[in-house]
Amino acid sequence: MEETKISTLHGLFAAQAKKTPNQIAVIAGSEQLSYHELEVRASQVARLLQQHGVGPAAIVGIMLRRSIHILIAMLGILKAGAAYLPVDPDYPAQRINYMLKDSGVRLLLTEQDITGTQFVGEKLDITDETIFRDITEADFVDVQPDNLAYLIYTSGSTGNPKGVMIEHQSVCNMIAGMTAVIDFSPGKTLLSLAPIAFDMSVFEIWVPLVKGGTVLLGTEQEQQSVEALKTLFAAHDVQMVMMTPSRLQLLKNTGELAILSQTTEIMVGGEAFPPLLLQSLVKYTCARIYNL
Fold first, then answer.
1. Pairwise CA distance, residues 285 & 177, whole Å
2. pLDDT for the residue numbered 2
3. Residues 6+ positions from 214 with CB-CB distance below 8 Å
4. Phi then psi for 116, rounded to 5 degrees?
């Protein structure tokens, strides 16, 4: 099947996994998975979800620490025909409880040490390898382009958070538009720093994954510490990065803009991009810079 005819996220990923099965899909800390390994693990999650009654039109919550399990969960939910709701475990309990109740989530993929919610539905700890014993590949689910892919809640700055529902065809359209302009060549590594509950994470995770790239998933410490971020850049060949102007300004203020010298594409979004900050940035990198 030609890639241009595929209009689901997991369909695009499966097509890429066939092309580059041994390419590294995700790195998080000391763990990594190839495209083939991620496809297999996600299929096991999908099968597990199907055994628990999950299918099309269902919404499954994800509340996990930053690790490879986040991507396994996202892809597994989509392969089961459902949509995912990302929940940041560091959110206040009141916000978490509101999102889970308002969305109608009945099943939550999480891990044992995350507590403090009033969620009364079913929980599955997908970091527990024992639950995957004897789990086979998932049954095929016919997912249509207008099926829901994910649900993300707004910040709630004007009141209660609002759930925004995004269909597969909308995300695939975004990917097609972005990759027509920005060079997401297979094998490139993109550093993902956005929390999964922010829409920027959709771009950071799914665009490289359907184009044969590698997602380098920054940890909570690497999100917050300039020194940890500097160490991460030194350890990996990061070619692509997406940052807010605020984070770039922090690097400028600490004299660390030079860590971006090895990048080939820098994508800036989320806030206004001040011209003076751009002038400072181009002194340290020859990367193509995109104002999103």
1. 25
2. 44
3. 23, 24, 25, 26, 27, 187, 188, 189, 190, 208
4. 100, 0
What's the per-residue H, E or C state across 11-78?
HHHHHHHHHCCCCEEEEECCEEEEHHHHHHHHHHHHHHHHHCCCCCCCEEEECCCCCHHHHHHHHHHH
Higher-pLDDT residue of 13 and 134 is 13
Confidence (pTM):
0.93
Is beta strand 148-153 parallel, antiparallel or unpaired with respect to 163-167? antiparallel
The mean pLDDT of 196-210, rounded to a whole number, is 94
Between CA 67 and CA 84 the distance in angstroms is 17
pLDDT digits (tens, 9 = 90+) for 158-188: 778 899 999 999 999 999 999 999 999 999 9
Cβ–Cβ < 8 Å for 188, 264: yes
- Whether residue 88 contacts residue 105, with contact meaning beta carbons closer than 8 Å, is answered with no
CB-based contact 107:60 (threshold 8 Å)? yes
Strand partners for 266: 241, 289
Q: How far, CA to CA in Å, does 255 sit from each of 226, 273, 280, 285?
A: 10, 19, 11, 14
Show the tokens assigned to 276: 């003076």
Q: Which two tokens stand for residue 77?
A: 């939910």
Tell me which residue has tokens 């972005």.
178
Mean pLDDT of 74-99: 94
Please name which of 176, 2, 193, 168 lies closest in space to residue 75, comparing C-alpha atoms: 168
